[in-house]
Amino acid sequence: MTTPAVEARTTALEVAMTEMVRTVDRFGREMVDFKREMAALWQRSDQERREAERTRAEERVEAERARAEERRDWNRRWGEMSNRLGTLVEDLVAPSLPRIAAPYLELPPGCALETALRVKRRHPADPSRTREVDALCSSPSAWLACETRSRLTARHVSAFVTGLPELREFFPEYASRRLFGCLASLAVEPEVVTFAERCGVLVLAVGDELMDVLNTPGFAPKAF
């Protein structure tokens, strides 16, 4: 025979067990929901990762396409520039050279400067040797030889100055005249102009009047 106290404890235990079962069941359902949410989150993350990778791949393809287009555009512009440089002598130097050369060639009144472009000569004593002058101007007492470069460097200046005196052998008709050197380009760095001045040659570049002299005002070129 059970007593009221025992019955009360039994009832309390049953209530506690029932509540624990409900808690475990609720926890189980929550775990199932949590797992579902985690699975969905992982699925979304995996989808976002694949989407991000796809976006990065598309961006790489687009960047490579843009670089290829830029290379093609640069090659096209460089080709146009190269073609333009091929006519630098005729289009820019030739019209400007008489104006630039006149103060140094001491042209007598009423006498016109003689100008020639792309003059190629063989050595009188050795026909296997040839020299070409891009442009030259001459007066009865002096002449000026001009060489053009797409990009002028100090090395070009040195080579040009070294070879200037030899020109007299290829142009014997000018042997008794003073020889001046001139270098022309589209643009020239200031330090190259300074070096050329120390070597005694004129430097020309594109300016307000087709080609302008870049040397220091009052500079007197060396007679070779």
Mean pLDDT: 82
Q: What strand line-up does the widest sheet have?
A: 1-2-3-4-5-6
Q: Enumerate how many helices there are, as a single number.
A: 5
Low-pLDDT runs of 5+ residues are: none
CATH overall fold name of the largest domain? Trna Endonuclease, Chain: A, domain 1
Radius of gyration from the CA trace?
44 Å
Q: Biggest sheet, open or closed, and with what strands and sense? A: 6 strands, mixed
Fraction of residues in helix: 55-70%
**Number of strand segments:** 6
The ordered H/E elements are HHEEEHHEHEE
Query: CA-to-CA gap between the ends?
Result: 140 Å
Topology:
Elements (H helix, E strand, L loop, with lengths): L3 H83 L1 H18 L8 E9 L7 E9 L3 E7 L5 H10 L3 H4 L7 E7 L5 H10 L2 E6 L2 E4 L11
Parallel strand pairs: 3-4, 4-5
Antiparallel strand pairs: 1-2, 2-3, 5-6
Helix pairs in contact: 3-5
Key features?
6 strands; 6-stranded mixed beta sheet; Trna Endonuclease, Chain: A, domain 1; 5 helices; alpha/beta; rod-shaped; 224 residues
